[in-house]
Amino acid sequence: MKIYTKTGDTGNSSLLGGSRVSKADPRLEAYGTLDELNAWMGLLKEQDAFREHSAFLGEIQEELFTMGSHLAAEDEVQVETWKLPALNGLLVGRLEAEMDRMDAGLEPLRNFILSGGHPASAMAQVVRTVCRRAERSIVSLLVAKPDQAPRLEPVVVILNRLSDYFFVLAREILRSKGVEAHVWIPRTGQH
Fold this sequence. Notes:
Blueprint: E1 12-14, E2 20-22, H1 26-45, H2 54-72, H3 76-81, H4 91-103, E3 113-114, H5 119-144, H6 149-176, E4 182-183
Antiparallel strand pairs: 1-2, 3-4
Helix pairs in contact: 1-2, 1-5, 4-6, 5-6
């Protein structure tokens, strides 16, 4: 099978059921951003600093593919027809438990922190921002297609929690490397 089909050369792409839509369609923006998030997560997971988190990150990557398949489906009928895997309703609780576990060893957060301090921590912050963009793109999709809300709102919840997880993970990496977070201290009285 050839990887190139030339069917997208006119700026259109197919949804799961075969409907052709513009590549500017909010649905494609949403699952394209999930794909980007998944690629960044793959890079993150391969860093030595994330070795103990690698298995969980792999599970999250698989869930991102499930989310993308639900975004590519036009309705619940297609979800059932294509026998798409169900969204993992337990993932939010697992993310919260993992954040609580890591947070227990971190200093209380009193200021905004800047990305950096260690390359792995900075990479987790990049993944966090891509995750937030994916969340915003799905919210935009729901605004454009409110009939999809009951089916896709759980994706927004998962991504909201996932971006929080990456923030805590970035802080945890700094702690494990013995690096203090760079705190943002706003300048006062300067223009």
